[in-house]
Amino acid sequence: MIDNRPPITPQSKVGDILSAYPELEETLIAIAPAFKKLRNPLLRRTVARVTSLAQAARVGNVSVAELVQRLRAAVGQPEFVGETEETGLTVLSEVPSHIDLAKVVETIDARPMIEAGEQPMTLVLKAINKLEGEALLLLITPFEPAPLRDRARERGFQSVAVRHSAGVVTTYFWRERPLSTLSEPQDSSLR
Prior knowledge:
alpha/beta; five-stranded mixed β-sheet; 10 helices; disordered C terminus; 5 strands; 16% strand
């Protein structure tokens, strides 16, 4: 009998994997207790639908390679041979010195939203789009918001996440370049 379920790769969406392999829910939770939140049906339909295993690995504080290999082994797939490179977005243990907390113009504590099964991505993306100059947005979550950080980076924003304790991660977002420099020519001979 041929198994028509999809192969498990770093790019696989968590929701797709759990739909195809419901038996992996307990394996995911055993790998990283942060994945217990996947038992929430609303988070499963929202966050899990857009979160890749590579992003989930960052949330669970495990390596992508370990996560993918353990899931593949649990369903009898051969060892993954391919790119499992991290995105370069890390979680620090303290706020770096270049982050000026006085420049935080808005703070969003998303923990109550996440506990209620809501997804803060749309709210946060709207807020970071309003950032100007050197302004910072502070986001508080119970885990690294990996999919959100990736989406923000795609839109030209930088971020740094800091794990303070179990259940508290602060993430600072800012524009890659201040708005005033976006319309200025890069070559001084063009002025």
